[in-house]
Amino acid sequence: MSEYELLKNICEELQKRGIKARLLNLNDPEAIGGRIEKIYAVYDPYEGISHLGSINIYDRNISQLQVFTRIVPGDISGFRWYDVHFVIRKDPKGKEKNLTADCKIGSSLFRRDVKWSGGTLAKQLNSDEELKKIIKSINCPHRIRPDNQYKCVRIVLPMGRDESKDIRKIPPKIAESFKAFEKIAKYINQY
To answer: Which of 169-179 are b and which e, b meaning 16 or more Cβ less than 10 Å from the residue's Cβ?
Structure first.
């Protein structure tokens, strides 16, 4: 599957679930940030990231999905990882501390737990039991980063090794994650 087909499949998977979505051309003026080369809010400047494309989302709290590929420094295999950003059009200026959060899914002997760390947003997310259940079911740690450069907030979903090796697994993973991230975006829009 080519990377263009990956984007097309993600868009179609969202549409099948009743989400109004449209694949954008790389230089489309609607793309947040246009053709992105660096995102200092999310990536180390030495990571070789490449923006594959964007999908506009309509009538939701999430404005856009952006798909990136990256090669992590120090990974001698040169393995290509994929990340999906659920982007919320929200200028974070002055609210960066409150809007930064990291999600960890831990497990103890008897149960798996979802724990958010960060600012005020993290506290709100920790108190939402329904959201925690959804995140446990999709089993994906992620992070939320305010992005002053492009005046938005990003929920970053890193694809695991399995999905990055077989990119056909990415569209269903994104579609099943959408409900959780739409709920998070609703909290973000309250700021």
So the answer is: ebbebbbebbe
